Amino acid sequence: MARVLVVVVVVVLAAVVVQDAMAQMPVMPPAVVPPAVPTTPPASAVPCVAELEPCSQFYKNASMKPTRACCTPLKKAYESELRCLCSVLTNPAMVGAVGIDRKKGLGLFERCAVKVPADSSH
């Protein structure tokens, strides 16, 4: 019986020593995790989209007739940056990042009288 009591006392003392040691350990601040790097660039980083900022109000309101400030850069982008425009309008991640609807985007070309081949809407 005495041995059991000694073992219990040793275990209790060991637990107290461990608790005391842990209480004296410095508390580490939580690890700082850097934010995730976006896989899709923001609209302002896509040149063919950034140049079309004057079109945003006409894109949002289809009943408004686009001005020259919108249609001129849109036509220029179509003529010289078609690959960029197509990559934006056909890539679901880009469409979401830029926040445009593909059909509305293509409709803006029509409203600006920019001739886009019929198969471009696919």
UniProtKB/TrEMBL annotation:
InterPro entries: Bifun_inhib/LTP/seed_sf (IPR036312), Bifunc_inhib/LTP/seed_store (IPR016140), LTSS (IPR043325). Residues 1-23 form the signal peptide. Residues 39-119 form the Bifunctional inhibitor/plant lipid transfer protein/seed storage helical domain. The keyword Disulfide bond applies. Keywords: Disulfide bond, Glycoprotein, Signal. Belongs to the plant LTP family. This is Bifunctional inhibitor/plant lipid transfer protein/seed storage helical domain-containing protein. It comes from Oryza meyeriana var. granulata.
